[in-house]
Amino acid sequence: MHQTSDAALGINLLHANQEGADRNRAHFDEWGITCFNVMSSPGAGKTVLLEKTLAALKDDLKIAVIEGDMTTELDADRLRQYNVPVIAINTGRACHLDSKMVAGGIHQLEHQYNPADLDLVLVENVGNLVCPAEFEVGEHAKVALLSVTEGEDKPLKYPVMFREADCLLITKIDLAIHLDMNIDTIVANVRQINPNVKIIPVSAKTGEGLAVWFDWVRSQIAKKELEVSRIRG
């Protein structure tokens, strides 16, 4: 059976994107940087999570953010208040960041700062439950967010992001008591899709679960540093 032209084009685009992602990751590896691709639907809490993360970790870790948004720099401006490097990328009509866009962000980082001084780059992807997970950007780990307000069925209805995630944060858990929502059911549905994903329920409002998230971030950076030290002998 012959592929349709649309299917062949999609495969070619993903192949070209993967080549770009591999180059981006090679740059991060060269500099000893850990990179997370942070993904979710709009309003799940990506930016506030990054705010909490920067506030808690910026004195101990050197962190930069590549901030993806379709049209504005509103989220980038929020994160700049924490005095860390923030590179804003506007995607226009595109519903996700791709490796070429992130390569542009890396280029800006390289010319404005010394990447070798950084420990962590957080890529905040465009709010979308589908496209971001299909396009790698050079990350070492994919971090997905799912708000309790989105419903228990989202992992089953939109499985790609949850299948690809290395860490899932169930956000806004302080609201669960006000909703007909069972966090255990969300966890069970996620486990059907991805049995091995790290799941961390959090509330940015109350702070519940954030320490677990911070520990996971530190563990990934320590893992990367160990890999670098082994390679360099």
Automatic annotation (TrEMBL):
Protein name: Hydrogenase nickel incorporation protein HypB
Phosphoprotein recorded as keyword: no
NCBIfam families to which the protein is assigned, alphabetical: hypB
Annotated signal peptide: none
Gene name of the encoded protein: hypB
Nucleotide-binding recorded as keyword: yes
CobW/HypB/UreG nucleotide-binding domain segment(s): 37-200
Record lineage: Bacteria, Bacillati, Cyanobacteriota, Cyanophyceae, Nostocales
GO biological process, one term: protein maturation
Family: Belongs to the SIMIBI class G3E GTPase family. HypB/HupM subfamily.
